[in-house]
Design goal:
Structural class: alpha+beta
CATH class of the largest domain: Mainly Alpha
Shape: globular
Strand content: 15-25%
Strand order of the largest sheet: 1-4-5-8
CATH architecture of the largest domain: Up-down Bundle
Number of helices: 12
Bound molecules: flavin-adenine dinucleotide
Distance between the termini: 39 Å
Length: 383
């Protein structure tokens, strides 16, 4: 049986109780960052859960981190404001030098440094990461970075950024995934010295931005691992990201199901609770079944990941099934509430917008289906 982390879940729920629906509603209205919430999570040690004890963290696994994010979402909040710290850190931990690890990880664990920005996506390359154009060119003991990232979330609320850039042009490498490198950039030093950040106003409150690099000079020792192997290093962390985000979706789904069930019991129309009608009951029950099934796959993926076993298929399936379950639950919850689902004060429309993201980011459903078709079922590569 998978460990359920009941103590961690209870502590997260207690912390989230201090940040009620009004808190998230107000932030969403103003499109502001949940600074107090992120500080509280950091001080409670929850954001350092995956950092090994020797670097000041709790040294727990992805299953524990998943429990934290799931509870945040099930409480009506949103962990996307700070989840990157959990999985981005893994690239530094697994591939960084000892100096990079001792320099960054203990400070990330205490909150002195925030590692919340992950710069991969670019406007022209889309999901085809091998076509990124941001380039880092070695010049003595520095690299000079030019290019642009898009949808770099939390860039304005992070001290460090993990940046993927081409160090060898795509047409000069044998394999298209080669020739990209990752850098751990000090954003405080880079700001206005070649790096500029422009917020993107989006459908959800996600603190997302465009980041421009114009002859930004970074020290060569910001390179993580070997030059040219950055894509592999980032891929390593993607299974963790998918498992964590699957649990955020499951948390959302649980929130929608609870909200819909409570309303369906209380709301009386035609002289009886609407939940007495099977037309209302069945979609709730169906969303519940889908959520529980996704939760099993997500738990399996986390267990494999924490055991150091390959878990690509499970992590991808968990992310897709959980995102589908949360979207199904969101639609059901809105429908159950009738017109009131659209009212801001019920929080459904906000969570509805927020959970829709997971059909697209960090990887879209189509790309997961392609992965399963090609890598699990052995069908021909389609792109
Ligand atoms: C709010 C938000 C926050 C984000 N945060 C970050 C972040 O912090 N860091 C970061 O690097 N990125 C971030 N992203 C980017 C996100 O990861 C990408 O948007 C996502 O990977 C999809 O890429 P794209 O938008 O370029 O879509 P495209 O690649 O242009 O794809 C568009 C559509 O076409 C489909 N498609 C493309 N190719 C195929 C194919 N071969 N077969 C079938 N369908 C295909 C896709 O599934 C998608 O539906 C964020 C995005 C959003 C919206």
């Amino acid at each position: 049986m998978t460990e359920t982390f009941d103590d961690i879940r209870a502590s997260v729920r207690a912390l989230c109780a201090d940040f009620p629906a009004e808190y998230w509603r107000e932030l969403d209205r103003e499109r502001t960052y949940p600074t107090d919430f992120v500080r509280a999570l950091t001080e409670a040690g929850f954001l350092g859960v995956l950092i090994p004890e020797e670097y000041g963290g709790s040294g727990l696994g992805v299953a524990a981190a998943s429990a934290i994010l799931e509870e945040i979402h099930a409480s009506g909040g949103n962990g996307a404001a700070c989840h990157a710290q959990m999985y981005v850190m893994g690239t530094v931990l697994r591939h960084g030098s000892e100096a990079q690890k001792t320099g960054a990880l203990p400070k990330i664990a205490t909150g002195e440094l925030r590692l919340q920005a992950f710069g991969v996506t670019e406007p022209t390359s889309g999901t085809d990461t091998t076509r990124i154009r941001t380039a880092a060119v070695r010049d003595g003991d520095e690299y000079v970075v030019n290019g642009q990232k898009v949808w770099t979330s939390r860039a304005e609320h992070s001290d460090l950024m993990l940046l993927l850039a081409r160090t060898t042009p795509r047409d000069k490498v044998e394999k298209r995934h080669d020739g990209m490198s990752v850098f751990l950039i000090d954003m405080r030093a880079a700001l206005d010295k070649g790096m500029t950040i422009k917020p993107i106003r989006a459908m959800i409150n996600h603190a997302t931005t465009e980041v421009f690099f114009d002859d930004l000079r970074i020290p060569a020792d910001t390179l993580i691992g070997d030059e040219g192997r950055g894509f592999r290093y980032i891929l390593d962390g993607m299974n963790a990201e998918r498992i964590l985000i699957a649990h955020e979706s499951i948390g959302d789904a649980r929130w929608f199901i609870q909200k819909a069930s409570d309303y369906a019991r209380d709301r009386v129309v035609f002289g009886r609770p609407i939940g007495q009608n099977q037309g209302i009951q069945f979609p709730i029950a169906r969303a519940y079944a889908a959520t529980e099934a996704a939760a099993l796959m997500a738990a399996k993926a986390a267990e494999l990941f924490d055991a150091g076993e390959p878990c690509g298929p499970e992590a991808n399936m968990a992310k897709m099934l959980a995102a589908d379950a949360s979207w199904q639950a969101a639609d059901m919850c809105l429908q159950t509430h009738g017109g009131y689902g659209f009212a801001e004060e019920y929080d459904i429309e906000r969570k509805f917008r927020e959970t829709r993201l997971y059909q697209v980011a960090p990887i879209s459903t189509n790309l997961i289906l392609s992965y399963i078709a090609e890598h699990v079922l052995g069908l021909p590569r389609s792109y």
